[in-house]
Amino acid sequence: MANRYLVVGGAGFIGSHLVAGLIARGDEVVVFDNLQTGHRAAIDARAHFHHGDLADPMALHAVFTGRRFDGVFHLADLSLVGESMQSPMRYLTINPSNAGRLIDACLRHGVQRLVYSSTANLFGTADTSPIGEDAPIAPASAYGESKFAVERMLLWAERVHQLHSACLRFFNAAGCDPGGRLGEAHFPETHLIPLAIDAALGRRPPLAVFGTDYSTPDGTCLRDYVHVTDLVAAHVLAMQRIAIGSVRYNIGMGRGHSVREVIDAVSRIAGRRVPVIAADRRPGDPPILIASADRIIHEMGWNPAYSTLDDIIETALIWRRNHPDGYANTAMQQRQTA
Ligand code: UDP
Questions:
Q1: Residue 329 binned pLDDT confidence (cut-offs 50, 70, 90)
Q2: Of 46, 316, 336, 31, whose CA–CA distance to 186 is shortest?
């Protein structure tokens, strides 16, 4: 049966893939996004778009008025670890207060299910690896702390108001729509895989490797990369699952790849060497972040289909080769055909 969903942050990297995935299933989708980091051209043309900011309760009220949503997906946080360490108060203020307004709007308008995109960063430098859901919370950055504050808020929204929620702690989201229409287009770009690809393609300066003296096998950080299409599948399953109660899941492949391994894989797949320079560690970066996804696999039957490092890099490479200017050309084409 088709459902109607609100996707907050539906113009962003993961949000735009989620919108396309829901529409492909036959669901009706409303997107709410301030387009600060997202792209109008990334939103599937079949979705209804509301340009608005979570800081504006009237705009939120307007999107809920006259519609009954079966559930809400929240993917609209400020999300850069490095930036959060330069402006911690901005993150600690904006992410929780925006989420608070969204939760409040859900409660006022009778929405009973919310899926929240959380982060592995809230585990900080964990003592165990892979990291399960019950590992101690010790955020490595103000970003992680702000996401944990939202998770706590959701706990109280359930205790007091019976709002069911899923907190999905992504490890490293990467890769692009295998169909090649959607991709990763951040400005500024800070993520390893798109930066490494652009460096290989000669579109950016050499890649700075942030820290080569970590206590890891090759001295660089290990991360658990998950394909965005598999993350979308996890969101859809989680929305169904929370009909019977709230859940918290870690989402990764249970496998770590070092920065150097990613660089080698990009060089091999692109057929061009990624030029690199060694740089200082980036504040807020834990050395190792690898998920145990046992719980989401066993409880929901999550079955990732695209998340080998090669699949991730191949799909990201297709997008960046075909869209050297991100969504700029798509937007221009849309204006010309309008
Ligand atoms: N990284 C790097 N150079 C860059 C960008 C990232 O060495 O220009 C490293 C970063 O320190 C981390 C890993 O690549 O160890 C993944 O970083 P990314 O920003 O892609 O994701 P995060 O782990 O912060 O979510």
A1: low
A2: 316
Ligand 1 in reach of 122 Cβ (< 6 A) = no
Q: With 90 as the cut, is the pLDDT of residue 251 above it?
A: yes
- What is the band of 338 on the pLDDT scale with cuts at 50, 70, 90? very low
Two structure tokens written together for 281: 């560690």
| Cα–ligand 1 centroid distance for 165 (angstroms) | 29
Length of the chain in residues, anyone? 338
Confirm if 120 and 171 have CB atoms less than 8 A apart.
yes
For the Cβ of 186 lying below 6 angstroms from any atom of ligand 1, the answer is: no
Domains located in the chain, CATH noted: 4-337 (3.40.50.720)
- What's the mean pLDDT in 291-307? 95
Pocket mutation for ligand 1, best pick of 84, 190, 210, 263 (most atoms within 8 Å of C-beta): 210
Nearest atom in ligand 1 to the alpha carbon of residue 221 is 15
The Å distance, Cα 172 to ligand 1 centre, comes to 9
Q: Which residues are catalytic?
A: 143
CB 177 less than 6 A from any atom of ligand 1: no
User: What single-letter amino acid sits at 58?
Assistant: M
Q: What is the spatial distance between Cα 242 and Cα 301, in angstroms, rounded to a whole number?
A: 14
Distance 197 CA to ligand 1 centre (A): 13
Helical packing angle, 192-200 and 259-270, nearest 10°: 40
CA of 90 to the centre of ligand 1 (A): 21
What CA dihedral angle connects 145, 149, 150 and 156, to 10 degrees?
160
Per-residue pLDDT tens over the stretch 28-83: 999 999 999 999 999 999 999 999 999 999 999 999 999 999 999 999 999 998 89
Model confidence pLDDT, tens digit, residues 252-273? 999 999 999 999 999 999 999 9
